[in-house]
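Reminder: ligand-aware prediction takes two inputs, not one.
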Amino acid sequence: MSELKRQVTKAIFPVAGLGTRFLPATKSVPKEIMTLVDRPLIQYAIDEARAAGITEFIFVTSRGKNALEDYFDHAPQLEDSLEKSGKHELLESLKSTNMESGAIAYIRQHKPMGLGHAVWCARRLIGDEPFAVILPDDVISAEKPCLQQMVEAYQETGGSMVATMQVPKEKASSYGILDVESEIGSLVSVRGMVEKPKVADAPSNLAVIGRYILTPDVLETLNRQKSGAGGEIQLTDAIAEEMDAKRKVYALKFEGQRFDCGSKAGFLQATVSFALAREELQDEFAAYLRDISPLIRAA
Ligand code: G1P
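Here is what comes back for the chain with 1-O-phosphono-alpha-D-glucopyranose:
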């Protein structure tokens, strides 16, 4: 594959999920707009994509996600009023949410048929180039953003690539799990992948985390993909089929900490961690946590 072909400039963000685990909040607020400190989940995903060189952002949405579209729109009145009142820092943070015209596209997934189907819905916008997929529920805090680590590794390897990390064996049935061919440092050569296996059937304790760099062949495979785990069309199954067709798939054990913001506990952990990392909150928030730690021990 030529160097040019290894540029990854498009990313798909599957955001059609109903977010039922966060009801009643998600009755009127898309899950991706829920905030860690003061930034919505989706902003973390977008910033990570931008840092990795992504310039085209494709959202696969569903009914009730209008707030997401508004979030990325310019807000001229608000910008004017912040400008006039000299609130430059706030203005800058507001502008960081603006998207260039034409850089962002929204596609509807009309039925909740799974992650593989959501990615397939964006096929016409991807065309014949490699692309990234980012699941905004998986928030990764890292010195070098996770997708950037993957893009750098992918420029060496080609093929397709997923992010991976070790999970406790008993949690295997919540993830796509890798069947490992070999490992060199943080790079894993993968020979198979199974979506949400029974604990006893899990081929390893390396789980797929929601970052992918995929070749366009995967879209072809998704074209004929039958439903898999949970009765849904699974992205994991399509990638596994790629391997059967002898196309190389790698996994990167990324550096960083992943928070499962699709669960309440993970969301709260991310909130605490991101709050402690913010200079303006650190002292007050850490003092509060120290104050309540005896209570935590007693709980
Ligand atoms: C999805 C993928 C799964 C992956 C997980 C990571 O599952 O299907 O392979 O391990 O994301 O968060 P979900 O969590 O949407 O059920």
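The mean pLDDT is 92. The chain has two domains: 6-262, 264-299. We will return to this case in the review session.
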